[in-house]
Design a protein that fits this description.
alpha+beta, eight-stranded antiparallel beta sheet, two-stranded antiparallel ribbon, 12 strands, 25% strand
């Protein structure tokens, strides 16, 4: 028997986000690395694969289930069952001695639903009250939720821009303040696993808030905050999740 529960909420960008899209048709003098966009609306989105991949990466290292060769497919690590592999689906099914069932976690694409002005000093309730619609946010920023950020390569000896290969390049980002929807579904095949897998998922969301989503995270991009989190309509307070 299978059951499912759903986590919904919103993703607020606290800094610009870059998740790369196709550069086909980019002209001289234009953006070098565009963000991925919905071809119908022209608006950027966060692929579910990007969310799931970063959550999986952070949790694998948090739980220490990556061996020295980078292998994460083992059913057990240090004598414990590899729950991250079970949740995200990285086990080699022909080499395990228990019924693992399919991947538990389904991550949906996250679409732009608006924006929030002056979010730096606001509490969550205020943030949600001050949310702008897509139309209002587009008018405020005078763009389709994109910005160009100039990047250069620095010479390690002089501290200045490299003379060769260090020229200016334009990286496209989704600007800070943009608001996305958020939805993940957890499949439950064994009822006793439900609470454990929910705990793992919430730890992953907390880790992601502390880390970064998308590219250029070590340079300030991709800082996010989850808002209005609910499990099947019941509010979840991510601030109560304590990481070891």
């Amino acid at each position: 028997m299978i059951s499912m529960y759903k986590l919904t909420g919103k993703i607020l960008l606290l800094s610009g986000l870059h998740i790369g899209g196709s550069d086909a048709g980019i002209k001289i003098g234009g953006i070098d690395t565009p963000v991925i966009k919905n071809s119908f609306t022209g608006l950027p989105y966060i692929p579910g694969s990007s969310l799931k991949g970063k959550l999986r990466f952070l949790l694998e290292h948090y739980y220490g289930v990556v061996d020295r060769n980078g292998d994460v497919s083992k059913a057990t690590f240090n004598g414990q069952r590899n729950e991250i592999g079970i949740v995200f689906g990285h086990l080699e099914h022909d080499k395990i001695n228990f019924t693992s069932y399919p991947t538990r976690l389904i991550c949906r694409d996250a679409n732009v639903i608006g924006g929030i002005e002056g979010f730096d000093a606001m509490e969550e309730e205020e943030l949600l009250k001050n949310a702008l619609s897509v139309k209002e946010a587009k008018e405020k920023m005078n763009s389709l939720f994109v910005e160009g950020k100039t990047e250069v390569s620095i010479d390690r000896l002089t501290g200045t821009v490299k003379q060769r290969g260090g020229g200016l390049r334009q990286v496209e980002r989704v600007p800070a303040g943009t608001l996305f929807d958020f939805e993940v579904v957890m499949r439950v095949f064994i009822p006793e696993e439900k609470e454990m897998h929910l705990k793992i998922l919430l730890e992953g969301l907390k880790l992601l808030e502390n880390d970064a989503l998308g590219g250029y995270g070590s340079r300030g991009s991709g800082r996010i905050k989850f808002l209005d989190l609910k499990q099947d309509g019941e509010k979840i307070d991510l601030s109560k999740i304590v990481l070891k």
